[in-house]
């Protein structure tokens, strides 16, 4: 059962690492301003992945049952963080697609003269605005990074050390 939970959380973190790498590589207007945040988030997720591998080896050792329980609770915190991060990345992916289709639709249906003056003040400050979206996503990423820092601190308190390679597993490759 423990191995299944670890595998699920590690897979989730690995997927997040790949997703952030993909978003960073997309040079869409929606991404501008978030690129540095996403790169930093990716670095933090790599650390969490290493911690998970370290926790897995710690649980595999013969430590007292109480300590195992505390480490399991920590792993649950990591899983919750991973789910939160997946939700943020899903929302980000949705907005990227929406932005892409909106841009294509605008290019096909409106002449250039109309497109140049097409953003009204109402649209600029609406929740659909790319500026508003970037600000909101930046806050979400910052919140995730703060949670990761807390998880990292808790891991150190528990004596969980990052492990770059444990039991033949390695960190997901990056494209940045």
UniProtKB/TrEMBL annotation:
InterPro entries per the UniProt record, alphabetical: Rx_N (IPR041118)
This protein's UniProt keywords: Coiled coil, Nucleotide-binding, Plant defense, Repeat
Pfam families: Rx_N
Coiled-coil blocks: 24-51
Keyword Zinc: no
Top-rank taxon, per record: Eukaryota
GO function term, MF aspect, one: nucleotide binding
Start and end residues of each Disease resistance N-terminal domain: 13-105
A GO BP entry: defense response
Protein name: Disease resistance N-terminal domain-containing protein
Source species: Opuntia streptacantha (Prickly pear cactus)
